[in-house]
Structure formats: C-alpha cells, structure tokens
Design a protein that fits this description.
By secondary structure, the chain is an alpha/beta fold. Helix content is 39%, strand content 12%. It is built from 16 helices and eleven strands. The chain has an eight-stranded parallel barrel, surrounded by seven helices. The structure holds flavin mononucleotide (FMN).
C-alpha cells in the first residue's frame, strides 16, 4: 500500500436484490429489477462514483434450505434464495464501469480448478484487469446435494484440498508468459515456447493444461478470502491479498488484525501488502434523528425465518430439529461441519461451553442487523468511527453491506465519502485502471505466489 494509507472500500452484495441483510429486498426504496442488467449496472455506477475499490458478490451453491429440510419458507421470505451466476454479473457490472474492481465468490470444494481459472481469467480480460476471486470452501450439505454428493467435506479437510486447489489455479494462470501472445496475421498467433503445460498431479487434483486463457491485464485476478476459524485464517494468511473478517467491535477488530497480520508474516509474506477489511453496516443521515429513523425502518424488515434459515445454512445443522433451550453436547458441537468461525463466536460471546439454539440465534446475530458492527449518525459521526478504526489499525478498509439497494450506497457516497476524502483517508480518484493498481498491490509476476 502506498503512503498515505487510504481506506479500502468494498461493497458487500448478493446477486439478488438484497445484501447479506436479507430483509433489504423488502425495503420500500429497494429496486426490484434484479433480473436485468440495468439493476447491477446502476449499482456499479453508484459505487464507481463513490470511488469504491471493489463491488463484491457473496455466493453459495444452494438455497438456505437446511432449516426443517425445506425450502418453502425461505423462498417465501426471499432469504437469499436467488443466486445468479456471479461471473456473468461481474461482467455485466464491469461493462458499466471503468475503474471499479469487481469480485465474485467461487468454491474450491464444488468446482474444478481449471474451471475457476478459466472463468475468472476470462472475466479479468473482459473487464480490463479488475476482477477478484473470493475463495471459499463452501459450507453445507445443500451444496453437496446439488453437486452429486451426499454430505459436505469436513472442515479442515476442505481447507487442505483448497491449498492444493490454489496451486493448480495459480499454476494455470502462470502458464502463459505475459508476452506469449503475438497475433501477427502474417506469422504466429502466439509463441508456442511461452505457453506451458502445468502437468499437475497432486493428492486431490490432476490437471494437465495447457491453459486456454492468456495472461491478463493485471497478471491474474486478485485473491480474496474470509476464513474465520484457526484453519481458515491460516489459509487466508497463505493465499489472500484481501482478507474479509467478521468482528464484534473495535477491540476485537484490533486483536484480529494483529493476529492475522502476524499470521501473514509467519507465512513468509509482506503483511503491508494484504488488506484486512471487516464486514459492517452504515446508517447515515443529515441529522442523528434521520439516521436513527433509517436504522429503525431497516431493522423492522428482519423476520425470524431469516435467522433460522441462515443459521442452519451457515452451521450446516437443522436448527428446527432441536428444542430452543437444549444445549448442544460437546460431541454435537465437534461434529458441526459448517462455519466453525461462527460456532466459535457463539461459544465465546455467550460464555457457554454448550450453547443452545437460542444462544446461536442471540449471539450469532445472523439474519439481523446484529451480525456486524454498525456505524450510525451524521456524516461526521460515521467518518469519526471509520477513521478511528482505520487509524488504530483495527482494519485497512471495510466490507460495507447496506439495507436498501442501491439507496444505502447512494447515501454513503453522497454523505460519508466526501467527509472521509476531506480528512485525507479516502481516495479522491482511482490510482490506475487495474484492481491491483487501485489496491496498491504489486503487479502479479509468474511464480511470485510460490513459497
Ligand atoms: C465478509 C464475508 C464474506 C463472506 N462471503 C462468503 C461467501 O460468499 N460464501 C461463503 O460460502 N462463505 C462466505 N464467507 C464465509 C467465510 O468464507 C468462512 O467460510 C466463514 O467465515 C467460516 O470460517 P471458517 O470456514 O474458517 O470456519 C464470508 C465471510 C465474510 C466475513
């Protein structure tokens, strides 16, 4: 990152008309035309006007139907049940912007490395070197069932597989030397000696190559990761250039920041070249009363089904199968195969070794405006807090979810961005055109990711 340090701003979106706050699709001002390119392109223009670094799309490969093993309530409640293909949405948004980075989530458990490398490599070309890949290992049996398997892979095992997956994807991205392409109509299309086969034969994956997408304008897409468990953080420290996290407050954020930056250094990488950004919400108004009113309207949009469906989905456990006040046994907790980061947070926040379903509802904050820190008030109030977190090294930036689409981002761009710019902690313009340039990351070089 270049000097002076600047806040990295990321928009946290779903490829539906909601954010991770599912009730946001019900907000009176949310747009409903999410099955058209106009919806996503409008969003891209708002974010680019506000000099956001990245528009990011979350993803999962199944509806949240683990609760009572039924999808009907989730569908009727619009609980993130539409998930359009993120690479298409990334391209659509990229065509309506010129500087905004665009990230999408892709699973290492259910896709093949060659597929991910090709899809994200193609998008990176089509949007001029502005693509990012959020690497997830996926979370639940619904995803397994959609991909011909009965159950999801165990937590740590899927990260072991993901380590090798990364070597194959990054390996393929390296196989076209940057100057391999010639396109001389009188001569050669490309230099055959500068396009290599990968010939990967590992424990979990085999992929021969040659890869079919040339070196991209930023070398390769930026790598995002958001593991929250010990194993997940270790994986992020090894591979990620942009790390998302889930924190409770500034103290927790500072401790997490120090821990993750330490893990990056321990992995032999430069911690200053990795951005750490916690998820958060912002409610801003010209007056505090207006901000409170906006918060109250949004807060009223959450329904119990949002929490239960999203908890069951994330933890990979049917919370409808257990009485609300029955504690989970040690064995049950150990056997949960979903997000260990969330399970461990509930145990820590509740102070109970054996939490109940009610504790999971209460202390995960899932599906409600309790899941991430909230910055609320006038532009000055919000900027004060965001600047303090940033300057105190609680974070390098934010993954900002809103509760009205796109109005929440319009508010932020109109009211908070100028205040942060005035204080010199937020970019007034993009530094370059590729995402790597705009994040202050070095241009990718072949093999630079190898230990
Ligand atoms: C901001 C943010 C965005 C995330 N996006 C996704 C996503 O799109 N898909 C997904 O399956 N998990 C997503 N996760 C979850 C993490 O990838 C991770 O699986 C989870 O936090 C549990 O950590 P663990 O895997 O280390 O147990 C996200 C987490 C955060 C904090």
């Amino acid at each position: 990152m270049s000097d002076p340090r600047q806040i990295t701003m990321i928009a946290f979106m779903q490829a539906q008309n909601c954010s991770n706050y599912t009730g946001s699709w019900r907000h009176p001002s949310s747009h409903s035309d999410f099955l058209t390119p106009a919806y996503f392109q409008r969003m891209a223009r708002v974010l680019e006007e506000g000099k956001f670094h990245v528009a990011f799309f979350d993803d999962r490969l199944a509806m949240p139907d683990r609760y009572k093993n039924d999808h009907v309530e989730a569908v009727e409640g619009g609980v993130r049940v539409v998930k359009l293909d993120v690479t298409t949405i990334m391209t659509v948004m990229g065509l309506a912007s010129t500087k905004l980075g665009i990230g999408g989530t892709g699973s290492t458990t259910y896709f093949e490395p060659f597929h991910i490398a090709r899809a994200w490599g193609t998008v990176d070309h089509m949007i001029g070197g502005r693509a990012a890949w959020n690497v997830v290992t996926s979370v639940n049996d619904g995803e397994a069932l959609n991909f011909g398997r009965d159950t999801h892979v165990d937590h740590d095992h899927r990260y072991d597989m993901a380590d090798e997956f990364m070597e194959v994807v990054l390996g393929h991205w390296d196989t076209w030397e940057p100057d391999a392409l010639i396109v001389d109509k009188e001569g050669r299309f490309a230099d055959g000696k500068k396009v290599h086969r990968l010939d990967h034969k590992g424990r979990y994956y085999q992929s021969r190559g040659p890869f079919t997408v040339p070196w991209t304008p930023q070398g390769r897409p930026v790598i995002i990761q958001a593991g929250q468990s010990g194993r997940g953080k270790q994986f992020a420290a090894r591979w990620a250039e942009l790390i998302f996290c889930s924190v409770r407050n500034i103290e927790h954020a500072k401790a997490n920041y120090a821990e993750v930056k330490g893990a990056i250094a321990a992995a032999g990488r430069d911690p200053e070249k990795v951005v750490i950004a916690p998820a958060c919400y912002v409610f801003v108004g010209e007056t505090r009363a207006m901000a409170e009113e906006k918060f109250a309207i949004s807060d009223s949009l959450a329904r119990p089904i949002d929490t239960l469906a999203l908890l069951s989905e994330a933890i990979n456990f049917d919370f409808g199968s257990k009485p609300m006040d029955e504690p989970f046994s040690d064995q049950e907790l150990a056997q949960l195969t979903g997000m260990h980061g969330m399970r461990d947070r509930v145990i820590a926040n509740s102070g109970k070794k054996n939490p109940t379903t009610r504790d999971f509802v209460e202390h995960s904050g899932r599906g409600r405006l309790r899941e991430a820190p909230i910055f609320k008030g006038t532009p000055k109030d919000v900027a004060d807090e965001m600047e303090a977190w940033f300057k105190d090294r609680a974070c390098d930036g934010y993954v900002l979810a809103t509760t009205e689409m796109p109005g929440g981002y319009e508010d932020f761009v109109r009211l908070v961005v100028p205040e942060l710019q005035r204080r010199g902690v937020y970019q007034k313009d993009y530094r370059g055109t590729t995402l790597r340039e705009n994040l202050g990351l070095p241009m990718a070089r072949r093999g630079d990711w190898r230990k």
